[in-house]
Structure formats: structure tokens, C-alpha cells
Fold:
Amino acid sequence: MHARRTGIPALCFGMVMLIPLFYLPVGAVLLQAFRTPEGTWSAGELFSRLSSAYTWRIARFTVTQAFFSTLGSVLIGLPGAYLISHREFRGKNLLRSVSTIPFVLPPILVVLGFVIFYGNQGFLNRALMNLFSLQRPPLRIMYSFFAIVLAHSFYNFPIILRSVGTRWESLSNHYEQAAYSLGAKPLRVFFTVTLPRLMPALISSSSLVFLFCFTSFAVILVLGGGPRFTTLEVEIYRQARTSLDMSSASVFALISLVFTFTLLLFYNRLSRTSVSREPGGRSTSVFRPCSSPLSRAAVFLYICFALLFLLAPLVSVMLRSFQAQTHRAGDVVWTLQWYTQLFSRTGGSLMGAAASAVLQSLTIALVTSAAAAPLALLFSYGTARMSYRGSSVMEVILMLPMMVSSIILGLGYVLTARTVRANPHMLIVLAHMVITLPFIYRITVPAAREAYRSYAPAAYSLGAKPLRTFLDIELPLIKKSLLTGAVFVFALSMGEFNAALILSDASIQTIPILMYRLIGAYNFFGACALGTILMICCAAAFYLFDRSSSGGLA
Amino acid sequence: MNGLVISNLVKHYPEFTLQLDCSVKEGSLTTLLGPSGCGKSTALSLITGIEAQNSGRIHLAGRDITDDPPWERNIGLVFQDYALFPNMNVGQNIAYGLKIRKVPKREIARKISMLMELMGLEGYEKRKPHELSGGEKQRAALARALAPEPDLLLLDEPLSALDAKLRIRLRGEIQRIQRELEVTTVYVTHDQEEALEISDEVIVMNRGHIEQTGTPQEIYTNPKTLFCGTFIGSSTRIPKDESTMFFRPEDVVLDPSSEQEMQLFHQAVLHRKHYRGFYYEYLFSWDQVTIHAYGDGSHPLGTSCTLGVPQKRCIILRS
Structure:
């Protein structure tokens, strides 16, 4: 037996878990698209759906909003990518760390933050009305195409900022210096020398953003506000839960899958070309302070705008949770009443359910991270031992759950759970495990690969068998990233809305679902209070992790 | 034979095939020398068992280890990046192989202090790897590899991450330690100077196969292939029909007094000279080829002279 083969049992065991939890449910959705509601096989539903104008209107709208949302993210993210890779300024670290927030921010909070900040009665409109003594709110962007694009851009521009920024930082500036010395002016240098080298990072991060916007659900469901702005994902949910027409839902899922799969192929091709390093390797870019007043003003404006854009909706949610209005157009008073209502019997059926929702969410999130971590460890251990070709195949197999939307996965679970009787809490945990697996895997696999490539041969040569090598050497080296990943899984699961909603029944009440119901009942204050609790739970997880990793482990 | 014997070992890759047939004498220091991409690293991972071969056998210390997993081969490894376990201190790193072999604690302590002394690492036992300099890491890695008394010590470009001065000092030390412990050693390098200095034997590799095996002197003075001749040292190659005449610059005599048994090159013109410290390297043009020779620098550029090379120093190699 040779060293590489020790990874095979780990991978087999991992696949035994992943196949019934991901590939079979998605397969069930694909099959269902070829069945009639009566249970006979027919492609009739598929063809009638494919030829209907309604379907194509939804598909067209899905693509259009994703396109403009991506464009918005690129336009907002690109200047930031330049700044963090080239300039030294106060607030840079703040910008860097704040830009990670959207990665773990629950979409339902994004939605709520938008309503509270940009809404007709929101903080922005209130401030403008007070400032200019207006009678009516000047900004009316809610429940429009623009609101969707704005929310998506806010949620996704950090992806562009970080991925292009990292690439930009790694580029050698010798190319630019050479171009300047040959007489090219800055703008020309940017378009002819810099941009082409940023293209791979730019295109791959924008296709990721496009994919996220394409399969976005909560934002459209709430901010879209009705049949005018419905996308494939919302339509799948509506067909499955409102019309109870699984075949129609599956046909929409099939269309969505074909789109995302094409995009995945495109993305995969691009990310393969973007790995090439620049000759000379190391970054030679020098961080310069901003010298001219004009550039200093531009940087200042961008930072303010980005921080406002990122933080204002969240801060608004927190502030609003401590406020109440005496009557419909009355004054705002500070109060803790929403919090007391959340945890007492006086709050009515929705507010009174909060304690149970917090408990359910915490339990689901803890069980999910406890289950996802060992699975991610198995897969990273296995793929670290594979050849380049083999591990890139595994990469695709494991990244697919990220590409298949959680609504479609949820639909798959609904379809399979009809034959296998399963507890809905259990189903939500399993769905969350599959949804978060790509994230935790991505975090652990570099550490696992490094541990195997750099240290396992040394341990083997000293006589340590694979299990011993794993326990003595590899696990201690992977532990930290595994814990980071588990905290991410916890936060993602706490905020996960889509799969939980499609799988929920009367007994299921997670924080995001309850928030959605409170928003639906126009109890924004209550939703804000619950949203604040959600933020605190996620922040506490990261804080505890940070303390434990800087203390005991380092 | 009790050293390392590699018989007809073959490993196929899509665009590369490694073929290896050689042996390393017990207690000797043998260098695997070749340019990057020649198959040295592949050879190494086959010997250690990280990769599986397509065919062939490997014997070490009289055992057939071909199908043994890496952890049963008893081969000590020192890597270019040292691979000291970052979660253990220097002492724990060195003790690791002994603990696995269930050596008694007292014996382990004795061995650690013996090795620390041998390597000049006294007082470093409690340090973490990241607190060591490059040279110290290198020596700690060597101590760790030697602790379980391996049947073979494999050094994979052990000095290439260090600066030039330290490199020269440490290769002397590696040679000293190897002689002292008489451990069979394979030293992988692309640095011909390193190979000539420390090896008992050199195996020259190119494009996945062995070009020549021999002592450093044999390889330098009597290369069997054009690749060996040109990879090590400077030389002059003169094409002749199907073959190439090959000789070293130190064998070239300027205006020889006796012309007996000499290969002569008349009217060679000195067109460049490189200052090398205590001598000059001369480049002569003769019949569209460049002849390398050494001189004292007194000849002005453009000098025309007759160059002679003793017949027995001229090697004919097939092109």
C-alpha cells in the first residue's frame, strides 16, 4: 500500500454521506420534472412549461436582475479593490474586516435592513425629511427593480472587492513601470496592461456574484413584493408550497439548474486559467499614502460610502429594535418593549414564539456544525492525497452543492421525504450540512493539503503509520481552520432561510423564518429585535472562536 | 550488497518516463545530480514510497522494500523546506521517530542530547521550529532524520534554501556527520559544485534516465555522454562528422613547445577574455568554434596562436 491510497477510504465514506444527502434529492427533482401530478411519466408538463411565455418572462427577469446586480457589485467593488491593494489610509483595516460581514450575513437581515434604512418610513427618508422639511418621503425605491439590484449589490460587492483586491495586490508593478517608461499614460496603462491581468479574477468573481444573484431568494421574495418581480427560485417555492404542484416546481428547478450548470462550467474554465502566477512572483507593489487633496477626498468619500452602504442597514435594524412609535405618524420613543414581548406570553402568537425559535435555531446550528466539521475533515483528508487531476474532479463534486440553490435542494428533500418519513428538524440539519459543506471544505482543504504535502512524508519516513500521522501531525495543523470553518457553518446555519422555509411545517420556527413572518405581519419592530438577537448570536460565535484560537491554540 | 539497489525501476507519467537502474554502496555518500525536471524528485518519491512505481524492484539493506508502505522503509528524509513539525519543539521533533519505535524514555533523552551535540544545537531543545534560523532548521531536520538510525539517509536539495556562504559551510558539515555515522546516504542536488565536493559517487540524471555513474573524478575527466561533459564544468566541443571532440580548458596549451601526440589548432584568435581572479578564461575563435582555455591575461585581444591539446585528453563523444 502506498501513501496516496490512504485517502481513498476517507473519500468513499464521505461520498456515502454526500450521495443520499445531495445527489439523490437533486436527482429526484430532475426526475419529477418528467412526471405528471398523477404520478405517470410524461414530458408533457416540461414541454408546455418550456413553451409558455410566462416561464420565459420569469427566466428573462431572473437573468436581467442578476446581470444588473452583478454590474452594480463590480462598479462599487472595483474602486475598493484598487484602494485596499494600492493605498495606505486610515480605516483600511476597518474596510477589510467590514467587507467580510456580507459573507455570513443572513439574507433575511439584508432584506430587513433595507426596508428599515431605505424604506418609505426608513431612516434615510426620515433624515432627508427632517433635513429639508419635506412632507413626504423623497426616496421611493422599495418593492422595485432598483431595490432588488441595490440589495444584491450591497450583499455581493465585497466578493468583487476582496477577490480582485487580492489578485491586484499580488501583481508585480514592474509591468506598469515598464509601460510608463515606454511613454504610456496612466489610463492607457490601466486598460492595456493592468486590466487584462485582472480579468481572470474579475470575471470569475463576477460570475460567482451572478450565480448568487441568479439563485437569490429572500431578497426577491420580500423586496420584489409580488408577481411582477418573480424569479425562478421564488416560482419554485410558490409552486411547491402554495400551489403544491411539485411537477411544475421541478420544471422550473430544471431550467434553473441548466442555467447554473452552464455558468459553473464557464466559471470552472476561468478559475483554471487564473491560477497562473506572475514571473518574479512576489508582489512589489508599494503602498502609497494619498498625496493630492483630490485623491484624498475621493478615498474619503468612497470609504464613507462603502461603510455607510455596508453598515447603515444593520445599524438601523439594531436602533429600530429599541424604538417604538406612539401612534402612526407619532414621535419615536426609546423602549425595550419588543424584547420583553419576544420572551413573554403577552406578545401574541408570533412574538411569543421567539424563545422557541432561538432555541431551535441554536440547536440546528450547533448540530449542523458538529456534523459538517467531521465530514469536511474526511473530504479534505482524502483530496489532499489525490493527484492534481483527481483533486480537481473532487473539487467539482464538492462545489456542486454551492451551485445548486438551497431552494432546489429543499425541494429535493420535500420530494424524497414523501417516501422516507423524516423529522423536519432532521431534514433541515441535513440540508444545512450539505449547503455549508462547500464553505467549510474550502476553508480546511488548503491546511489539509499543506499538512499532507509538507509534513506527512516526514512523519512516514520516521515510521509513523497514517492514523498516527493524522493524529500527531495533520490534525493539530488542520484544527484551527476546521474550527474557523465550523464557526462559519454555525453562522450560516443560524441565518439560513431558504431550505428551512421550504421544509418548514407548523412545528418549525427558526429565527429567520419567524423574522419573515413578522415582516409579513408588518411587525418591523419585532423583526428588528429578533434580527438583533440573530446578529448577536453570530457575532458571539466569532468572538468566542477568536478568543479561544488566540489563547489556547496558537 | 547491503546498500540501496534499484533494479529497472520505471514510472510513467503522461509526458515523462523515469527509468532507474543503479546502486548505492553501504556507508557511501552518493549524489543524484541533474537539472530540474530530470526526474530526481520522482526518483525520491519512489524510493520513499510516496508514489508507486509501474515496475521494478527496490532493495535496501538486503530487504525488498518495493511494496512496503513509506512508514516501514526505515529511510531518513531531509527536505529542502525542512518540514519540521510546527506543533512540536526541536526536542519533540527529534524524539518523534524514537517514540514511534517505543524506545525507552531515558534512551530517547540520551540520543537527543548526543545528536544535539553532534549538530551543534545544544540549548535549542525547547525552541519551536519558527524560532530557528535556516541553518539551524536544516541541522534539526538532519538530527530528526538520523535519530531512528535509518538504513538510508535521503537529502532532497537540503541546502538550496540557504545563502551561498552557509551552503558551503553546511555541506562540509553534512559530509563530516555522514562519515562519522557511516550512514548510507543519497544526496539529491542540481548543484554540480556541491556534487563534486562531497560525493563518493555521482549519478548524473537527465530527462528521466541515468547518463553516467562514477566517482566525481571519473565524471569530470572522463564523461561518457555530451550531457555529462557539458553539465559539469566548462569545456570545448568540436563537431566532427557523427561525433564530437571534447576537452577541458585546463588541458589546452598555448603555443606548445612540443607538438608530439598533440591535437593542434593553428591560428586560433583570442576574441574575449574573462577575469576570474587569479587566472583568466580565454575564448579563442577557431574555424567557427569557440575554444576555451586558461591564461595569465598577458595576451592582448586579437592575438593569434596555436593551441594544443594532448591526444589522450581529447574525448570523442557520440552526438
Chain A has 24 helices and four strands. The longest helix of chain A spans residues 424-461. The two ends of chain A are 35 Å apart (CA to CA). The beta strands of chain A are 87-88, 288-289, 323-325, 332-334.
